[in-house]
Task: structure prediction
Amino acid sequence: MHEPQSLEQLVAEFSSLPGIGAKTARRLAYHILTRSKEQVNRFAERLVSASEKVHPCPRCRLYTDEELCPICRTRSCAKAICVVEKSSDVQPFERSGIFKGLYFVLGGVLSPLDGVGPEQLHLNELVARVRDENIEELILALGSSPEAESTALLIGRLLESLPVKCTRLARGIPMGSDLEFVDEVTMLRAFESRGAL
Ligand SMILES: [Zn+2]
Result:
């Protein structure tokens, strides 16, 4: 079917988003055409504004639009760091209120097939924080995939010489599930029965 080029380009942009297949991309692009000019402008402005203003916190790498994220600012005395794969994984912890410590966003897990090696993760920054801030406990909340397992083992090895207790969430987290979507009760249980690495 022939479509105007600008519409085709819009479909292509939507298709490039994670979880959006060709059909959904087309539906979204056609939907945009039914919206008012003001609505479309606001949408476009918010896209640009979020991408320009939001950046990783220099200390924990959580997304923030401030110099330092609110968690680093208000809990600077905490001596525990919870390590997550991506910024959005922090949500279930904060929603459940179980953890009052600091976070660190690793930026992924080891995945040699996808070209993710130790250099692609922010491991040096993590080790430096644990050392410089005298962190007493590091809680690994990286999920339960084989990639997460090997990442957890590597972090454990990197921190061997430091006086920090490394723990990991209990296996209550369903295998292969995305931490971001874990409900509060599962998270509370997994957190409370966290064990040694
Ligand atoms: Zn921060």
